[in-house]
Design goal:
It is built from 11 helices and 12 strands. By secondary structure, it is α+β, with helices and mostly antiparallel strands. The longest helix has about 80 residues.
């Protein structure tokens, strides 16, 4: 029975005479209101269960009572047992008629039994006989249309319980208890979720600290290794320079190839160290972006073309430069933009044996585009997905034809992303490659 229905029944119908069977209805209403207030004072599930069960045992004058709730698997699970003095009963004492509890939960309807030992209309279970139970009251705990459990009380004493003031009061208590228990469960779940979130945040914080520590150690290690490598290389360069001063022109000419090999090998080591440090700074976020207004031709490309022209000539390659958008300005980091074009043009010359390398600037749909095209070895379609992967090269191992550490394009791609630009590549094996980089045009 619902609380609202109970209130309506005991309301005056225009006379002062109480309804038949409800002589103590006013008292029961006050009792229920007091119980509802008490069980709604707390959102701690254990407290709510204890208050509900104590009141259920008291108002029915039972020997003991139990509450079972539905768990996450949909099965009924023992939660609490109390005797008439409020002492907690162990789970092992939960020897009640499981058929009664199960029937009440499945049907969603209360069951009240008087003279349980003698009433052969009921399915007298072994637990009822063994415990010599006489009086049983059992009601489902329902919120809305969802069943969440069962409240059960019993007694060895034989009492007249099939009167409305007892059964309806018990059902109303069950209804109000279900709401309080559900609210406590929701609160309990919120607390668990909050604690889980706090724990996850703490784990993330620790993981972040470990990652930052690892990054610091990595950066410090690489910086130390850079120092350890640069120092002996600089000494080699220094003594090589001293040796050259001791030689006359004929000796210098005779040993030119040796000195060039020493210089190129040392420079290669330096470049490798610099590139690894550069990639490390990008990956750990230890890099500052300082955007400025740049004229691509005057501030970047012209200087790089002059720097790489001798290398192209040495390989017998033509290095073309075409500017179809003079005066185009972009807003980007000078160092990063210079580095990315250094790496792209260096790669174009390195991977081209004959033909040409061209650099072209043009304007298109509000964008400034720089195209770097070569007639080199090209890139296979299978390798395209790995093109910007650090330390990756199409030809790997000691038998590869080209030197390098596979970081140039990875770094270039990162610098492009950090400056809100876009890169596009088209390539065909043995025919060449074209990289196109698109920047937002800035109007002065």
């Amino acid at each position: 029975m619902k609380f609202s229905e109970f209130q309506k029944k005991i309301s005056s119908d225009g006379t002062d005479a109480p309804l038949a069977g409800y002589e103590n209805a006013g008292h029961n209403l006050d009792l229920i209101l007091d119980i509802v207030k008490s069980i709604n004072k707390s959102l701690i599930l254990d407290d709510v269960l204890s208050l509900v069960l104590k009141n259920a045992v008291n108002i029915t004058r039972s020997d003991r009572g139990y509450i079972v709730l539905q768990n996450n698997d949909g099965k009924l699970e023992y939660k609490l047992g109390l005797d008439h003095d409020g002492r907690q009963l162990p789970e092992s004492s939960f020897q009640v008629s499981t058929s009664v509890v199960a029937d009440v939960f499945i049907a969603g309807k209360s069951k009240f039994i008087e003279s349980a030992l003698n009433d052969r209309t009921e399915d007298t279970s072994q637990s009822i006989i063994k415990l010599e139970l006489q009086t049983i009251l059992c009601s489902p705990l329902i919120t809305g249309d969802k069943k969440i459990g069962v409240i059960y009380v019993d007694s060895k004493s034989l009492r007249k319980i099939k009167v409305k003031e007892i059964t309806e009061t018990f059902e109303i208590l069950a209804g109000q208890a279900a709401i309080a228990i559900k609210n406590a469960q929701l609160y309990n779940n919120q607390i668990k979720a909050y604690r889980a979130l706090q724990n996850a945040n703490e784990q993330l914080r620790k993981a972040k600290e470990e990652a930052e520590k690892s990054n610091r150690l990595k950066t410090e290690f690489l910086a130390q290794m850079s120092h350890e490598i640069r120092t002996p290389i600089n000494i080699i360069f220094g003594f090589t320079s001293l040796l050259k001063e001791e030689f006359d022109l004929e000796q210098l000419h005779r040993h030119k190839e040796t000195f060039d090999s020493i210089h190129n090998a040392g420079k290669r080591i330096m470049n490798t160290v610099d590139t690894i440090l550069e990639m490390s700074q990008i990956q750990t976020g230890n890099i500052d972006i300082v955007p400025v207004l740049l004229d691509l031709q005057n501030d970047i490309i012209t200087e790089i073309i002059k720097e790489y022209k001798p290398f192209a000539d040495e390989k017998g390659l033509d290095l073309y430069y075409i500017n179809e958008a003079p005066g185009c300005i972009i807003h980007a980091d000078r160092y990063m933009i210079k580095q990315l074009f250094n790496k792209l043009i260096d790669n174009a010359i390195k991977y081209t044996h004959k033909g040409h390398v061209s650099v072209k600037i043009f304007s298109e749909k509000g964008k400034v585009c720089v195209e770097i095209q070569d007639t080199g070895v090209g890139i296979s379609q299978e390798y395209m997905a790995m093109l910007y992967t650090p330390f990756s090269q199409e030809e790997m191992g000691y038998t590869r034809k080209f030197e390098g550490n596979g970081l140039g394009l990875a770094i270039a791609k990162k610098y492009i992303e950090l400056n809100n630009a876009r890169i596009q590549v088209k390539s065909e094996k043995k025919k060449g490659t074209k990289f196109s980089i698109f920047f937002d045009k800035t109007e002065l």
